[in-house]
Write a structure and sequence with these properties.
The chain has 418 residues and is an alpha/beta fold. The chain contains 18 helices and 15 strands. The structure holds adenine.
């Protein structure tokens, strides 16, 4: 079997971590049990480009037990957990191409190695596989049943491709399921980004001025959790509705260049480029900590930061000091890559349970609807979303009420007023 990982001898540690995560993933486990019986993915090759974590490992194992042939590469050069990659190869015979800290050339070589397996379904976190496939031959994209996409940034890329008429196969925006973004993006990013900041710095958050750029689902989660730990949270936004929501949620909203003057910590969660840009970098307070939790490492203008830097040194893992020519210092976390995966372990398994239940059911949905879907971006049907929520609630031991017949009737009529 072909693979490229850091060190196969790490597999025992990886196996235990995979087992630990599985314990917190009851919904994916139920799906895996059904997949093992029914084999809905028989004769299907799936190429996955996802963060290689203990949670992803459980998704890969579920798909394999569903009958699929799998190949996996990393969706970010810094997010791979090398012990997990080793266990996937050694214990589960899953061809894996991922090494934490791999350079850009290796990253793209790994994507090519996955595509060499000729997948008919691709599974992306950031749309790099779809993008690479569209750069290959037209014939190749014709063989694809469809693709699934995990993250907001990837969905934005896919929708741009659809709008321009470039997209050549159907794509399921897994991110857009409610059981994905309302939980993974908010509570997952909220907790894991704080976790990343703390593992890199071990600072006290209470009393710090903590600036969150972007008040989408991820930004909301980070702001909520930072507030919960006693930080004075400031939000920056470009969207007036999101800014208004942040104000009414009790946060101060400022322009980013102004916020930079007082921030102890700044974190970007926007999906956009150079959010901590030239003006902000020039105004940033001495000894501020900056980090990004968006998908790509473009949110902080690193080129500009480097051009203003006299010298830099690594203080500890994932914490780099930039000494600027103007005499100030800035501390960059995890090279400006998503801090929750670069400097911590990503979202906890409990939320990835729902995200990856959506991924597993999306791949089954693509197989069931082979040839029926257009080259468009789709959301999974509401029934699938609700089923995942129901299973999760059940696993958590929580019950919901049912509408009475009278109530059902009331909400389906229009003529009963005061
Ligand atoms: N994205 C964020 N957290 C993740 C995790 N734990 N596994 C896979 N992808 C992730």
């Amino acid at each position: 079997m072909e693979y490229n990982i850091k060190d196969i001898s790490l597999s025992p540690k990886g196996k235990l971590n995979i087992e630990w995560a599985k314990q917190q993933m009851p919904v994916l486990t139920l799906i895996e049990q059904r997949f093992s019986r029914q084999k809905p993915l028989k004769n299907i090759t799936i190429g996955a480009c996802l963060h290689v974590t203990k949670e992803t490992a459980n998704l890969m194992i579920a798909l394999k037990n569903g009958g699929a042939d799998i190949a996996l590469c990393a969706s970010n050069p810094l997010s791979t957990q090398d012990d997990i990659a080793a266990s996937l190869v050694k214990d589960f015979d899953i061809p894996t191409f991922a090494i934490k800290g791999e350079d850009k050339t290796t990253y793209y070589q790994h994507i090519k190695q996955v595509l060499k397996k000729n997948p008919v379904i691709t599974m992306d976190d950031g749309a790099d596989l779809v993008s690479a496939l569209h750069k290959e031959s037209k014939q190749r994209t014709k063989e694809i049943i469809g693709s699934t996409e995990e993250t907001t940034t990837g969905v934005i890329r896919l929708k741009a491709m659809e709008k321009k008429g470039f997209l050549r196969f159907p794509a399921i925006a897994v991110n857009d399921s409610l059981t994905k973004h309302m939980f993974d993006n908010r509570y997952g990013t909220g907790q894991s980004s704080i976790d990343g900041i703390l593992r890199a710095t071990n600072i006290l958050l209470a009393g710090k001025v903590f600036v969150v750029a972007g008040y989408g689902w991820c930004g909301r989660g980070v702001a909520l959790r930072a507030k919960g730990m006693g930080a004075r949270v400031i939000v920056t936004e470009v969207d007036p509705i999101k800014a208004l929501e942040a104000v009414m949620d009790g946060f101060e909203v400022l322009k980013i260049a102004k916020a930079a003057k007082i921030a102890d910590i700044m974190i970007t969660a926007t999906g956009n480029k150079h959010v901590i840009g030239k003006e902000t970098i020039d105004k940033i307070k001495d000894a501020a900590i900056i980090a990004n939790t968006g998908h790509f490492n473009v949110e902080i203008d690193l080129e500009y930061l480097n051009s203003k830097t006299k010298n830099k040194r690594v203080i500890r893992e994932n914490l780099e000091e930039y000494r600027l020519k103007n005499g100030k210092k800035i501390y960059l976390l995890g090279e400006g890559r998503l801090v929750n995966l670069a400097s911590a372990e990503g979202h906890p398994a409990e939320v990835m349970d729902m995200s990856f239940a959506n991924q597993a059911l999306a791949s089954e949905y693509l197989v069931k609807n082979k040839g029926k879907l257009k080259s468009k971006v789709y959301v999974l049907p509401k029934q699938i979303d609700r089923l995942i929520a129901k299973l999760k609630l059940k696993a958590m031991g929580t019950a919901t009420d049912r509408m009475t017949l009278e109530q059902k009737k009331y909400v389906s009529t229009w003529n009963e007023g005061t």
